[in-house]
Fold this protein.
Amino acid sequence: MNREQFLKNLRASKVPLHPLQVDGWEGTIYLRPTTIGEVRDILLERGDRKEGDPPPPPDPLYIARTLAGIVRDEEGNLLFDPKNDTQVAELMEALADAAPSISRQINQAYDKLNSPSPAEVSPEGKSLSATSS
């Protein structure tokens, strides 16, 4: 494979959506692993701070904002805009009365998507196969 083929294949690769049926809910929500671009954006936002700057104030909507960046529809679109304080506040209000098991189910499923499986973690000196999962 040459460089152009590699880039073409990489650009054509889509991050898969994973359905999640929350216990006691009608309908399905969808999650997908974090992309490299999303990780880059987070690091760039953190990189805006200079050494010695005070830490940013705590975000009172952190839990809802995090959830807003995870939950998607069947097309892969976010159900909430994590940068829209009105939407995030509405989500936080709904979460305030929800059972903790709801956000725990969603977060555990999301963490599993973003964690390497034992087969993906290479023991010292062994190479990984592209088909291991």
In short: Helices lie at 3-12, 36-47, 62-68, 85-96, 100-114.
